[in-house]
């Protein structure tokens, strides 16, 4: 998301419950640096947690970011573009991030809705700046977390 200086942060912020007593809940916000395929700072994205084979991982998709600094001009300094349609798996415990390219996801979508159920995420709606579309498809992204490398697949449901 955006920082107070109107920059975009590439940090992950983890909210957790510290204490719960007498109707009062206290939260802790922890900032986590990522390693590996670090997603660029963005907004209008989604991040969900999936569970597979007793493990969990965060799945980040979509959003918008500022155009690369080499392409910025004074008139278009704060211009935005769709993030690439990559799916990132994020291990919250170790801060490792891995990027996946799925051929079914052709456009970076912003402001979509997503929901996770067990090992699957469903993505609906959103908007693509690149071609000004709002796809009518439902995307089903399934994540398998075996002992070795994760497997990620996508099914498009018109």
TrEMBL record:
Keywords: Chromatin regulator, Metal-binding, Zinc, Zinc-finger. It comes from the Eukaryota. GO terms for biological process: chromatin organization; V(D)J recombination. GO terms for molecular function: sequence-specific DNA binding; zinc ion binding. InterPro entries: Gal_Oxase/kelch_b-propeller, Kelch-typ_b-propeller, RAG2. GO terms for cellular component: DNA recombinase complex; nucleus. This is Recombination activator protein 2.
């Amino acid at each position: 998301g955006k920082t107070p200086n109107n920059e975009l942060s590439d940090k992950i912020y983890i909210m957790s419950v510290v204490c719960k007593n007498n109707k009062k809940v206290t939260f802790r916000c922890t900032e986590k640096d990522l390693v590996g395929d670090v997603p660029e700072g963005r907004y209008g994205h989604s991040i969900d947690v999936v569970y597979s084979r007793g493990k969990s991982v965060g799945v980040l998709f979509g959003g918008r970011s500022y155009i690369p600094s080499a392409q910025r001009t004074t008139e278009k300094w704060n211009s935005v573009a769709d993030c690439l349609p990559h799916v990132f798996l994020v291990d919250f415990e170790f801060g490792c991030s891995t990027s996946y390219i799925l051929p079914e996801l052709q456009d970076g979508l912003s402001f979509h809705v997503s929901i996770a159920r067990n090992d699957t995420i469903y993505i609906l709606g959103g908007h693509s700046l690149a071609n000004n579309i709002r796809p009518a498809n439902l995307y089903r992204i399934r994540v398998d977390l075996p002992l070795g490398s994760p497997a990620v697949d996508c099914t498009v449901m018109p």
